[in-house]
Design brief:
Layout (H helix, E strand, L loop, with lengths): L3 H10 L12 H9 L8 H8 L1 H20 L2 E2 L5 E2 L3 H12 L13 H29 L2 H17 L5 E5 L3 H12 L3 E6 L2 H8 L9 E3 L5 H6 L7 E6 L4 H14 L5 E4 L3 H8 L5 E3 L1 H14 L1 H10 L17 E5 L3 H12 L3 E6 L10 E3 L5 H6 L7 E4 L4 H14 L4 E5 L6 H6 L4 E3 L1 H14 L1 H9 L5 H15 L5 E6 L6 H8 L6 H4 L12 E8 L2 E4 L24 E6 L17 H12 L15 E2 L9 H10 L24 E11 L4 E11 L5 H9 L18 H9 L8
Parallel strand pairs: 3-4, 3-6, 4-5, 6-7, 7-8, 9-10, 9-12, 10-11, 12-13, 13-14, 15-19
Antiparallel strand pairs: 1-2, 15-18, 16-17, 16-18, 20-21
């Protein structure tokens, strides 16, 4: 059933049994996955419909020419009268009309036959010209190309087996979110109503092929085509610039896939209330979020710095400490953004003067009516006596001119500006904006943790309530480990599935603290470069737990995944931690290789299973072992579609492996060894471990030596005395390259 209304009525008429409520309905999902629009399967019928007339013309031409050739009299080799059979006539016309020109068969033609063949040649040329022209016109037809694109898009979406995110809207916010998802190797599907945006996506340097199609997301059938009914669809994100379209996406996802996480953008309070009538979607308002950030910066600047730092893109650097002043603020522009900012500033007890061109707001004494681009209107707001100015219009040129004019009147003003177009970022940096509002960046930073690490989003929501001193201390701890880099976050589960050795440790009546857990193996081991952010055990939540906090397995699940016996901790670490961490074998038995490693892990003494191992979406607590790749792939498939049970932290692969993935490089090496007569080009693939520098990798490349085996046509030179001296000197002797 592709109509949300019909699905809703079916749920009212046929309520789900009590014992099945809350369970995934695989049969319904399979039916939804197959309920795609007819466009995906109508390409061949469109081709036949467009080529119907040319095909009929060709059939008629061949029928006339073949029939006429059988009726034309000829002579055989003995000079007797002879007529060509239908088979020979069709064979002759086939290679003649296709310009192959084999010859006259089986006997030389008579004058009548040659006259008829001449007529047939011109007739078939006209028929083929008409057919080829129609075919070329069909290939250029927009509807035919759209049908091909839909068919190809549907096939690619159906082929997705790993969890993916369905993104509706590829504007500035959607583009930034897509880049962030690609940076952490999370698959996603994009739909947008504008074809030019889809064309821009094809030019993006994404790591994997991204299925994308220009369709209207308001149509429920189009969402099904984009993978809404695919069991691997883990999240739906509606980021279009139209609140009504986002509402339609939220409604379709809630009615056709109940329980599927939905994140929607909405700027109208009325639309927000209508969205919340369909399930429990996460509604994000960038203007309201920025107002909240501004209030946090006024109360606790370090808390805002911590939030921005942890939620930043993996390629970004540490954000500055923002300290907005208290006093009178001037807001230029009283639209959606200006209204939210003015309300938040007044909620903090600050005086706000608004400049707005709309006549309807002239009754408010705090609002100055007039254009913000006029110098006398801006001067009437007395910027000399203000402490800050907010350029809140939806035009970057206007905002930049207002900032330049205000800086002339008061160079010490704290500037808050709304940046609407990303290409104008250098201009806003040139005018020294203290706090820029970029809606796409705010949306991406708010949505990404919700998709990849729900526990991290829970931590970020609790940060403002802990105070500025607490946040400043945590920022200092992270700064000591990460410097200017963005810390990577991951989650640790202490349960029978991911930490069997640790549970045996607790079963032996032993205690373990966080400080002991975050320490290298062995006596006197150094501390791991990791900072615990939050500990969740049942209903208990501890932010930034200290080293003395004791760990214990939980008796019931407290995670959104509903997994039993789970105690979770959200940690932050620097990239240096990757040098130590590795994978661990688990109890999953997947093939002989994985089974042998799992049995080996079972024989590990309890006293050795006290280390934190990570680098996938979950950390495992047991002795470092090499994980069988097939077992990891089966683990990933087993957990597919269970959002948000297994988030994928920034900088790591989607696969649930424990070891950090190496960076793969391609190199072309030309070896010219005059002494040994070896001249050859090598296409090499190098894997650089995260702990390895570029310089060390280049040393490995320069130290490459061809295998010392006899090759066809190559006669190796006998070793010289110098070679024997080099071999006797051992590995400390400098390598000759």
């Amino acid at each position: 059933m592709s109509s949300p209304l019909l699905v809703f009525l079916q749920q009212l008429i046929e309520p789900e049994p009590e014992e099945r409520r809350g369970r995934p309905r695989e049969r319904d999902r399979a039916r939804l996955a197959q309920s795609v629009p007819g466009q995906a399967t109508s390409t061949i019928f469109l081709v036949l419909r467009r080529l119907r007339a040319p095909l009929i013309v060709l059939i008629v031409i061949y029928a006339i020419t073949v029939l006429g050739l059988t009726l034309m009299p000829g002579v055989d080799a003995a000079g007797r009268p002879w007529k060509m059979s239908i088979f020979h006539a069709f064979y002759f016309m086939s290679y003649t009309a296709t310009t192959i020109g084999f010859g006259e068969i089986p006997y030389a033609f008579s004058d009548a036959q040659r006259m008829w063949v001449t007529f047939s040649i011109y007739l078939t040329v006209i028929g083929w010209a008409y057919a080829i022209g129609t075919m070329l016109a069909m290939l250029q037809d927009r509807s035919f190309r759209q049908a091909l694109a839909v068919r190809r898009f549907a096939s690619r979406v159906r082929a997705l087996k790993e969890p993916f995110v369905l993104v509706a809207g590829y504007g500035r916010a959607g583009r930034r979110l897509a880049r962030s998802l690609d940076a952490i190797d999370r698959r996603f599907v994009v739909v947008d109503v504008a074809q030019d945006r889809i064309d821009e996506l094809a030019l993006e340097p994404f790591r994997v092929d991204v299925p994308a199609l220009a369709i209207d997301a308001r149509n429920p059938d189009h969402l099904l085509l984009a993978g809404l009914g695919n069991p691997a669809c883990a999240t739906v994100v509606a980021l279009t610039g139209d609140d009504e379209v986002n509402l339609a996406v939220t409604m379709a996802a809630a009615l056709q896939r109940p329980g599927l996480p939905v994140i929607a953008r909405a700027e109208s309070p009325v639309v927000v209330e209508r969205m919340r009538a369909f399930g429990d979607p996460v509604v994000v308002n960038p203007f309201d979020l920025y107002g909240d950030y501004l209030r946090i910066a006024l109360r606790a600047p370090s808390s805002l710095q911590l939030i921005e730092w942890i939620a930043a893109d993996p390629q970004a650097s540490r954000p500055p400490l923002r300290t907005p002043p208290r006093g009178r603020w001037i807001v230029c522009g009283y639209g959606r953004f200006g209204t939210e900012v003015a309300a938040d500033l007044r909620a903090e007890g600050l005086e706000v003067t608004v400049i707005e061109a709309a006549e309807a707001t002239a009754d408010d004494p705090a609002i100055i009516t007039g254009s913000v681009t006029e110098s006398d209107v801006l001067a009437s707001a007395r910027p000399q006596d203000a402490v800050a100015l907010v350029a809140a219009t939806d035009n970057d040129t206007t905002n930049l001119s207002v900032i330049a004019e205000a800086r002339k009147l008061n160079p010490a003003l704290y500037i808050v500006a709304r940046q609407n177009q990303p290409p104008n970022a250098p201009l806003f940096r040139a005018v020294r904006v203290d706090f820029a509002m970029i809606a796409s960046q705010i949306l991406a930073h708010e949505i990404l943790p919700i998709i990849t690490a729900p526990l991290l989003a829970r931590f970020l929501a609790a940060v403002p309530g802990e105070g500025d001193a607490w946040a400043a201390a945590l920022v200092a701890r992270l700064d000591a480990l990460c410097g200017e880099r963005v810390p990577s976050c991951w989650r640790v589960r202490l349960d029978a599935e991911d930490a069997p050795a640790l549970l045996r440790w607790f079963a032996a009546k032993r205690t373990l603290t966080i400080g002991e857990l975050l320490r290298e193996r062995g006596e006197g081991g150094s501390a791991i470069a990791a900072v615990p952010l939050m500990l969740v055990r049942g209903s208990e939540t501890v932010l930034a737990p200290g080293d003395a906090v004791a760990l214990a397995p939980a008796t019931r699940s407290c995670s959104p995944a509903g997994r039993r016996g789970a105690a979770r901790a959200q940690l932050c670490r620097s990239d240096a931690t990757r040098d130590w961490c590795s994978s661990a074998a688990t109890r999953r038995r997947a093939g002989s290789g994985a089974g042998s490693r799992a049995r080996k892990a079972e024989r590990i003494p309890d006293g050795e299973a006290t280390q934190v191992l990570h680098s996938g979406d979950d950390a495992r607590l047991c002795r470092p072992e090499r994980v069988d790749a097939s077992a990891e792939r089966r683990t990933e498939r087993a957990s597919a579609g269970r959002f948000p049970h297994r988030p994928h932290p920034p900088g790591n692969r989607t696969r649930a492996s424990m070891a950090l993935k190496a960076t793969v490089f391609k190199a072309d090496l030309s070896v010219a060894d005059i002494d040994r007569g070896y001249y050859r080009d090598h296409a090499l693939t190098l894997a650089r471990h995260p702990s390895e520098t570029d310089e060390r990798m280049m040393v490995r490349l320069l130290a490459f030596r061809a295998p010392r085996r006899r090759r066809a046509g190559v006669r190796p030179r006998p070793p010289s005395a110098e070679d024997e001296a080099d071999r006797a000197a051992g590995p400390d002797r400098r390598c000759r390259t």
